[in-house]
Design goal:
Blueprint: H1 2-6, H2 13-50, E1 58-62, E2 70-71, E3 74-75, E4 85-86, E5 102-116, E6 122-130, E7 134-138, E8 143-146, H3 148-151, E9 156-159, E10 171-175, H4 176-182, E11 189-194, E12 208-217, E13 225-229, H5 230-237, E14 242-243, E15 245-250, H6 268-275, H7 280-290, E16 294-298, H8 300-342, H9 344-352, H10 357-395, H11 406-429, H12 433-437
Parallel strand pairs: 6-13, 10-12
Antiparallel strand pairs: 1-15, 1-16, 2-3, 4-14, 5-6, 5-11, 5-15, 7-8, 9-12, 10-13, 11-12
C-alpha cells in the first residue's frame, strides 16, 4: 500500500505533469554533473598530455657531483669533470609504482667540440648525445620508446632524426641558429672534433665526419648545439654507459596541502595516500628510491604550470556542476512545496486516522526517490552524450564511456531530490489535521 501511494503522482494527470517536471529538473542537473565528471576522469590525462609541450618536469642527476656549470639546461663542464649516471640504470624509471605516469624521458651527455662546415667555416659548439627514438621496452604487454622525440613533441625538425643504433655515415641534427651561422643544410657533411676526449683509440680523438640529417628548431639552447646518438658520443669521449643527466616528463596530479607536506612528518595513513597519488613530489621520491646515488628534482616552472592549469580546469567543471545541481534542487523544492499545498486535505486525512509524521515524510521522500532514480538514469545518459560532444569539440575525440560513474550519479540524483523535498516534508508534518479538514 505504501508504494502504491508513493507511485500515485505518476497516475494522476495533473500530478503526473509535475512529477515529470521534477524528473526533467533532476535529469538536467545530473546530466551536467555526469558530463563534468566524465570529462574530468577521461580528459584530465589528455590535458596533461597536451601540457607536455612545456617539456620535462623532472631532472635526474648524480647525487655526488661537482659544481655544475649549466646555462640554458646545457652542462658546459669538461668531459673529464663531474659525476655521471649509468645509462643502463635508466630502465628502472619504468619500474616504479607510477611507471605508467612516466610518459617520456631522455638521457643527455655533453661535450665541447669544434665544428667545421663544408664551406671551411668553423665554430665552437656543444655536442649533445641523447636518445632520439629508443625502443626501451618491447613486449606483448607493453611497448615504450624513450628519447627527445617523445619528450619534446613541440620541437620542429626539418629533415629526419638520426638512428639511435647508428648509421653509415654517422648522422647528426644541427640547431637552427648554428646551421644559419655556418650556412648548413640537410645532407651536408660536417667535421666534428670533440675537445678533451680521453679514449684508448686515437681515431676517436680525430674529427668525425657526420651527415646533417635535419635542422632543429626549439627556441632554446639546442639551436646552438649538435645532437648526435648517445652511443656515438660515449664512444668518442670514452664514457661508455655514462650520461650527465636525464630529463623526465611525468603526468602529475595538481598539488594540494598533502603534497606540500614533508613525508617524514606524515602519519602512516597520510604517507600511504601520498605515495599512492601521482603528486610530483611522490614521483620524485620514487625515482630517488629506484635510482640510488641520484638526485631527482622537480622543474618547478613546468610542474606548477601543469598543476595550475589542471587545477583551474577541475575547479571550473566542479563549479558548473554545483550550479546545475543547485538549480535542480531549487526546482525540486518549488515543485514539492506546490505538491504539499495541493495535497493538504489528503495529508490531514492521513494524520486524522493515525498516520505518524515520519510515515507522511517517508511517503513524500519515497515519491521523490522514484523521481530521483528516473532523473538520475536520464541524467547519466544525457551526461555521457554531452561529454562526448565536449570531447570532440575541445579535444577532437570522444570521451570513453565510464560505467563506474553511474552509481555516483544516481546518488547525486537521490541527494538532490531528497534535499529539495526536505523543506516541503517538514511543512507537511507540521500541518494540523483539524484545521485542514475544516477548510482553514
Amino acid at each position: 500500500m505504501f508504494w502504491k501511494l508513493a507511485g500515485e503522482p505518476f497516475r494522476r494527470p495533473r500530478n503526473r505533469r509535475r512529477a515529470l517536471a521534477a524528473v526533467a529538473a533532476i535529469a538536467l542537473g545530473t546530466a551536467i554533473a555526469a558530463a563534468m565528471l566524465s570529462v574530468a576522469l577521461d580528459v584530465g590525462d589528455r590535458v596533461g598530455n597536451e601540457l607536455r609541450s612545456l617539456g620535462a618536469n623532472i631532472v635526474v642527476s648524480p647525487a655526488v657531483d661537482s659544481l655544475p656549470v649549466e646555462i640554458g639546461g646545457t652542462d658546459y663542464r669538461p668531459v673529464t669533470e663531474g659525476a655521471y649516471l649509468a645509462e643502463s640504470s635508466l630502465r628502472k624509471l619504468k619500474e616504479i609504482f607510477w611507471r605508467n605516469n612516466i610518459l617520456a624521458f631522455a638521457p643527455f651527455l655533453y661535450a665541447p667540440a669544434n665544428l667545421q662546415a663544408p664551406t671551411g667555416q668553423s665554430a665552437a659548439t656543444t655536442v649533445a648525445g641523447t636518445w632520439f627514438d629508443y625502443p626501451l621496452l618491447q613486449s606483448k604487454e607493453e611497448e615504450f620508446h624513450a628519447g627527445v622525440r617523445a619528450l619534446n613533441p613541440t620541437w620542429k625538425l626539418e629533415g629526419d632524426w638520426p638512428h639511435d643504433s647508428g648509421a653509415e655515415p654517422p648522422e647528426a641534427v644541427v640547431g637552427k641558429s648554428l646551421a644559419s651561422t655556418l650556412h648548413l643544410r640537410r645532407g651536408d657533411t660536417i667535421q666534428l672534433a670533440v675537445i678533451g676526449a680521453q679514449t684508448p683509440e686515437p681515431s676517436d680523438r680525430s674529427p668525425h665526419a657526420l651527415r646533417v640529417s635535419g635542422i632543429l628548431s626549439t627556441g632554446g639552447a639546442e639551436e646552438e648545439q649538435v645532437l648526435v646518438p648517445l652511443a656515438a658520443l660515449q664512444a668518442w669521449t670514452g664514457l661508455a654507459d655514462k650520461v650527465r643527466k636525464a630529463q623526465v616528463s611525468a603526468l602529475i596530479k595538481p598539488e594540494d596541502e598533502l603534497s606540500r607536506k614533508n613525508p617524514q612528518a606524515m602519519s602512516p595513513a597520510e604517507y600511504d595516500r601520498w605515495f599512492c597519488s601521482p603528486y610530483l613530489s611522490s614521483i620524485v621520491h620514487q625515482i630517488g628510491d629506484a635510482l640510488p646515488d641520484t638526485t631527482a628534482r622537480a622543474v618547478r616552472e613546468v610542474a606548477e604550470t601543469q598543476g595550475s592549469v589542471l587545477g583551474k580546469l577541475n575547479f571550473l567543471m566542479a563549479l558548473l556542476a554545483a550550479v546545475a545541481l543547485l538549480a535542480a534542487t531549487l526546482s525540486i523544492s518549488s515543485l514539492a512545496s506546490l505538491n504539499v499545498l495541493e495535497r493538504r486535505q489528503e495529508i490531514g486525512l492521513m494524520k486524522a486516522i493515525g498516520a505518524q509524521d515520519w510515515l507522511i515524510g517517508s511517503l513524500f521522500l519515497a515519491e521523490t526517490a522514484l523521481q530521483g532514480v528516473l532523473g538520475g538514469l536520464l541524467g547519466f545518459a544525457g551526461g555521457e552524450f554531452l561529454a562526448q560532444l565536449l570531447g570532440r569539440v575541445l579535444f577532437g575525440s570522444g570521451v570513453t564511456l565510464n560505467w563506474l560513474i553511474l552509481p555516483p550519479v544516481l546518488a547525486i540524483a537521490l541527494g538532490v531530490s531528497s534535499i529539495g523535498t526536505w523543506v516541503a516534508v517538514r511543512r507537511a508534518a507540521r500541518q494540523d489535521p483539524a484545521h485542514v479538514l475544516q477548510g482553514v
